[in-house]
Amino acid sequence: MTKIRAAITGVSGYVPDYILTNAELEKIVDTSEEWIRTRTGINERRILNEDGKASSDMGAEAVKLLLEKTGNKPSDIDLLVCATVTPDMQFPATANIICDKTGIRNAFSFDLNAGCSGFVYALVTASKYVETGHYKKVIVVGAEKMTSIVDYTDRSTCIIFGDGAGAVLLEPASDGLGIIDAVMGTDGSGRSYLHQKAGGSLKPASHKTIEAHEHFIYQEGQTVFKVAVVKMAEAAEKILQRNNLTAESLEWLVPHQANRRIIDATVRRIGIDAKKAMVNIDKFGNTTSASIPLCLWERENELKKGDNVVLVAFGAGFTWGAVFLKWAYN
Question: Class assignment of domain 180-326?
Answer without folding.
Answer: alpha beta
